[in-house]
Amino acid sequence: MLQEKATKRLRVIFWSSSEFGLPTLSFLLKSDLYDVPLVITRAPAPKGRKQELAPTVVGDYMRAEYPDVQLAEPEKLAYNDELKARVRALNPDAYVLASFGMILPSSYLALAKHPLCLHPGPLPKFRGAIPIRAVLMEGLTETQLCVMKMVREADAGPVMLRRKQVIDPQDNFGTLREKLALLGAQCTYVALRSIGEGSEHYEEQVGEPSYTKILTTEDTYIDFKWDARRIVNFIRGLAPEPGAACLDPWGRRIKLLRATVGRQDIPGSLPGSVLAENKVSFTLAAGDDNAVCVHEVQPEGRRIMNAHEYLAGHRVSAGLSFANIPLKHE
User: At CA 322, angle to CA 321 and CA 324, rounded to 5?
Assistant: First the structure.
């Protein structure tokens, strides 16, 4: 009879600042296989109209569900001797980092033999801050969850594990992030099990890397001269937040949150012009022979609403136009 390899109980420090990390954090804390002596998240930051300091979702989760587990909320990592000493004293076997929001300096990476990162995108393509948004904007039909070993250069470390995730046509940033977050928890189990058994294996990344960048406000603006498919994928990559922005026919900002590609029945229409409207959507001309059927929006300062609700309060009709928001450098 084959005997299973003995698995060492690992001491793991978890790093995360967003919803993406919550399924993995919950798994680690509930499992008897791991000792999680410390969770590290970013410091509370100004939020909302009043710009009041608010903890990250990870900070809120830990206070509500695991108040007895140590929590660190550093404003910075560099020259933070107190946090570094705290991590060193815990002598972790591994880190698991999932959307932390800061790059770990080499001095921290040296404190764990296996400083792992969950990267929600194919590597070496889609390195950087927004791989989930980037694959949606490019219209890919599948992506990956990679477990890699962190090195000094961001997202350049050797990969231990890759798992494919199919992207459904209706997926947006919110739904795809949720799917990848759940897959991340599964991959964390597999990766840590291999470390506990001493059977871990890393492979260097092969191929030309490409990088995604942090979005600026202008990066969320729709350009109606794009083809319809690009506009729809752009909307998917920015929904439900921060939203793909444009101007309504009355010059007010509005976010388009859900759309599909349709037919442009009036060839040569000005990009952004309203072609038709019905009870469930309104159709805008794009820069090609197709059109954008809008199903969900959020006017500035208002709640998210479906197209039927929006049309009930706004007289959107053929002949009117939605417009690009002017860029500052234009």
Answer: 125
What's the confidence (pLDDT) of residue 51? 84
User: How far from 67 is each of 84, 90, 128, 144, 266, CA to CA, in Å?
Assistant: 22, 18, 32, 33, 61
> From start to end of the chain, where are the E strands?
10-16, 34-40, 45-47, 52-54, 70-72, 94-98, 114-119, 127-128, 142-149, 159-166, 211-212, 244-247, 253-263, 274-277, 282-285, 290-299, 305-306
CB 294 within 8 A of CB 185: no
- CB under 8 Å, gap of 24 or more: what pairs does 279-286 form? 279/308, 279/311, 280/306, 280/307, 280/308, 281/307, 282/307, 282/311, 282/316, 284/224, 284/322, 285/224, 286/224, 286/226, 286/227, 286/228, 286/231
The confidence band for 268, taking pLDDT boundaries of 50, 70 and 90, is confident
Mean pLDDT of all residues in the chain? 95
- The answer to whether residues 24 and 33 touch, using CB atoms and an 8 Å cutoff, is no
Predicted TM-score (pTM) of the model is 0.94
227/211 Cα distance (integer angstroms): 23
Question: Looking at residues 295-307, what average pLDDT do you find?
Answer: 96
Supply 130's token pair: 């927004």
Distance (Å, rounded) from C-alpha 310 to C-alpha 306?
6
Report d(CA 121, CA 144) in Å as an integer: 5
Strand partners, 263: 290
Instruction: State whether the Cα torsion 324-326-329-330 is positive or negative.
Output: positive
Per-residue pLDDT at 6: 56
Q: How many residues does the chain have?
A: 330
CA distance 261 to 167: 17
The count of other CB atoms within 10 Å of the CB of residue 227 is 16
